[in-house]
Amino acid sequence: MKAKDIMRKNVLTVSPLATVKELAELLTKYKITGVPVVDSHGGLMGVVSQTDIVRKEARRGEDALDFYRDVMPLFGPVSRESEEATVFDLMTPAVLSADEETPVGDLARQMLARRIHRLPITKEKRLVGIVSTMDIVRAFVEMEELRSKSGKAD
After folding, report:
1. pLDDT, one tens digit for every residue, the chain (154 residues)
2. Which of 82, 89, 105, 113 has a CA 20 to 30 Å removed from the CA of 147?
3. How far apart are CA 34 and CA 24, in angstroms?
4. What's 123's domain CATH number?
Protein backbone atom coordinates (compact mmCIF):
# COMPACT_ATOMS: atom_id res chain seq x y z
CA MET A 1 0.00 0.00 0.00
CA LYS A 2 1.30 3.44 -0.93
CA ALA A 3 0.58 7.07 -0.05
CA LYS A 4 -1.63 7.47 -3.13
CA ASP A 5 -3.83 4.62 -1.85
CA ILE A 6 -4.62 6.20 1.52
CA MET A 7 -4.20 9.96 1.03
CA ARG A 8 -7.08 12.38 1.04
CA LYS A 9 -7.09 14.10 -2.32
CA ASN A 10 -9.43 16.99 -1.55
CA VAL A 11 -7.09 18.88 0.73
CA LEU A 12 -8.04 22.13 2.41
CA THR A 13 -5.20 24.57 1.92
CA VAL A 14 -4.45 28.13 2.84
CA SER A 15 -2.61 30.94 1.10
CA PRO A 16 0.47 32.40 2.77
CA LEU A 17 -1.28 35.79 2.53
CA ALA A 18 -4.34 34.70 4.53
CA THR A 19 -4.67 36.35 7.93
CA VAL A 20 -4.42 34.47 11.20
CA LYS A 21 -8.08 35.33 11.72
CA GLU A 22 -8.97 33.65 8.42
CA LEU A 23 -6.83 30.65 9.34
CA ALA A 24 -8.52 30.32 12.75
CA GLU A 25 -11.94 30.50 11.09
CA LEU A 26 -10.97 27.79 8.57
CA LEU A 27 -9.59 25.44 11.24
CA THR A 28 -12.64 25.99 13.43
CA LYS A 29 -15.19 25.61 10.62
CA TYR A 30 -13.75 22.30 9.41
CA LYS A 31 -12.68 21.07 12.88
CA ILE A 32 -9.12 20.40 11.77
CA THR A 33 -5.81 21.19 13.44
CA GLY A 34 -3.64 22.22 10.52
CA VAL A 35 -3.40 22.80 6.78
CA PRO A 36 -0.76 22.93 4.05
CA VAL A 37 0.25 26.36 2.81
CA VAL A 38 0.38 26.57 -0.99
CA ASP A 39 1.29 29.22 -3.50
CA SER A 40 -1.00 30.31 -6.34
CA HIS A 41 0.28 27.40 -8.50
CA GLY A 42 -0.39 24.71 -5.90
CA GLY A 43 3.25 24.48 -4.87
CA LEU A 44 3.77 23.39 -1.27
CA MET A 45 5.31 26.18 0.81
CA GLY A 46 4.80 24.89 4.33
CA VAL A 47 2.30 23.81 6.95
CA VAL A 48 0.48 25.82 9.61
CA SER A 49 -1.41 24.49 12.60
CA GLN A 50 -3.43 25.61 15.60
CA THR A 51 -0.29 25.00 17.66
CA ASP A 52 1.42 27.76 15.63
CA ILE A 53 -1.36 30.17 16.62
CA VAL A 54 -1.11 29.20 20.29
CA ARG A 55 2.70 29.53 20.27
CA LYS A 56 2.50 33.01 18.77
CA GLU A 57 -0.08 34.08 21.34
CA ALA A 58 1.87 32.62 24.25
CA ARG A 59 4.71 34.98 23.34
CA ARG A 60 2.44 38.00 23.16
CA GLY A 61 0.62 37.75 26.47
CA GLU A 62 -2.03 40.28 25.42
CA ASP A 63 -5.75 40.30 26.15
CA ALA A 64 -8.02 38.37 23.82
CA LEU A 65 -10.42 39.95 21.43
CA ASP A 66 -14.01 39.20 22.41
CA PHE A 67 -14.57 37.77 18.94
CA TYR A 68 -12.09 34.96 19.53
CA ARG A 69 -13.32 34.27 23.05
CA ASP A 70 -16.90 33.91 21.85
CA VAL A 71 -16.54 32.36 18.39
CA MET A 72 -13.29 30.41 18.46
CA PRO A 73 -12.78 28.89 21.90
CA LEU A 74 -10.42 26.25 20.50
CA PHE A 75 -7.73 28.84 20.03
CA GLY A 76 -7.95 30.75 23.28
CA PRO A 77 -6.81 34.35 23.33
CA VAL A 78 -5.73 35.93 20.06
CA SER A 79 -4.18 39.36 20.12
CA ARG A 80 -5.10 42.27 17.89
CA GLU A 81 -1.64 42.09 16.34
CA SER A 82 -2.10 38.41 15.47
CA GLU A 83 -5.46 39.14 13.91
CA GLU A 84 -3.56 41.14 11.27
CA ALA A 85 -0.60 38.75 10.97
CA THR A 86 -0.47 36.42 7.99
CA VAL A 87 -0.10 32.68 7.66
CA PHE A 88 3.35 33.33 6.21
CA ASP A 89 4.35 34.78 9.61
CA LEU A 90 3.30 31.56 11.40
CA MET A 91 3.88 28.67 9.02
CA THR A 92 6.63 26.11 9.22
CA PRO A 93 8.41 26.49 5.87
CA ALA A 94 10.20 23.79 3.87
CA VAL A 95 7.94 21.19 5.35
CA LEU A 96 8.58 17.49 5.15
CA SER A 97 6.52 15.84 2.42
CA ALA A 98 6.41 12.49 0.68
CA ASP A 99 5.89 11.36 -2.88
CA GLU A 100 2.62 9.63 -3.73
CA GLU A 101 4.53 6.37 -4.37
CA THR A 102 5.95 6.23 -0.82
CA PRO A 103 5.01 2.99 1.02
CA VAL A 104 2.69 3.43 4.03
CA GLY A 105 5.30 1.97 6.41
CA ASP A 106 7.77 4.66 5.35
CA LEU A 107 5.13 7.36 5.91
CA ALA A 108 4.51 6.05 9.43
CA ARG A 109 8.24 5.96 10.24
CA GLN A 110 8.70 9.56 9.02
CA MET A 111 5.74 10.79 11.05
CA LEU A 112 6.91 9.00 14.20
CA ALA A 113 10.51 10.17 13.84
CA ARG A 114 9.51 13.80 13.37
CA ARG A 115 6.50 13.71 15.70
CA ILE A 116 4.14 15.13 13.10
CA HIS A 117 0.43 14.48 12.63
CA ARG A 118 0.03 15.12 8.94
CA LEU A 119 2.24 14.62 5.91
CA PRO A 120 1.61 16.45 2.64
CA ILE A 121 1.84 14.22 -0.42
CA THR A 122 3.40 15.71 -3.53
CA LYS A 123 3.93 14.92 -7.17
CA GLU A 124 6.58 17.02 -8.88
CA LYS A 125 6.58 19.43 -5.89
CA ARG A 126 2.85 20.11 -6.20
CA LEU A 127 0.46 19.15 -3.44
CA VAL A 128 -1.75 16.23 -4.50
CA GLY A 129 -2.96 14.94 -1.13
CA ILE A 130 -2.39 14.61 2.59
CA VAL A 131 -1.98 11.69 4.97
CA SER A 132 -2.86 12.04 8.65
CA THR A 133 -2.09 9.77 11.57
CA MET A 134 -5.67 8.47 11.37
CA ASP A 135 -5.15 7.56 7.71
CA ILE A 136 -2.08 5.53 8.74
CA VAL A 137 -4.03 3.77 11.50
CA ARG A 138 -6.84 2.92 9.04
CA ALA A 139 -4.31 1.56 6.53
CA PHE A 140 -2.66 -0.66 9.16
CA VAL A 141 -6.06 -1.97 10.30
CA GLU A 142 -7.02 -2.68 6.69
CA MET A 143 -3.72 -4.49 6.03
CA GLU A 144 -4.16 -6.56 9.21
CA GLU A 145 -7.70 -7.51 8.20
CA LEU A 146 -6.43 -8.62 4.79
CA ARG A 147 -3.71 -10.72 6.45
CA SER A 148 -6.27 -12.30 8.77
CA LYS A 149 -8.58 -13.17 5.88
CA SER A 150 -5.78 -14.67 3.83
CA GLY A 151 -4.66 -16.72 6.87
CA LYS A 152 -8.17 -18.13 7.34
CA ALA A 153 -8.42 -19.09 3.69
CA ASP A 154 -5.33 -21.34 3.87
Report:
1. 999 999 999 999 999 999 988 998 999 999 888 899 999 888 899 999 888 887 766 655 544 444 344 444 444 545 555 567 899 988 888 678 999 999 999 999 999 999 888 899 998 888 999 999 999 999 999 999 988 888 765 4
2. 113
3. 10
4. 3.10.580.10
Distance CA 131, CA 120 (A): 6
Q: What is the pTM of this model?
A: 0.72
Domain with 73 in it: 3-153
- HEC string of the chain? CEHHHHCECCCCCECCCCEHHHHHHHHHHHCCCEEEEECCCCEEEEEEEHHHHHHHHHHHCCCCCHHHHHHCHHHCCCCHHHHHCEHHHHCEECCCCEECCCEHHHHHHHHHHHCCCEEEEEECCEEEEEEEHHHHHHHHHHHHHHHHHHHHHC
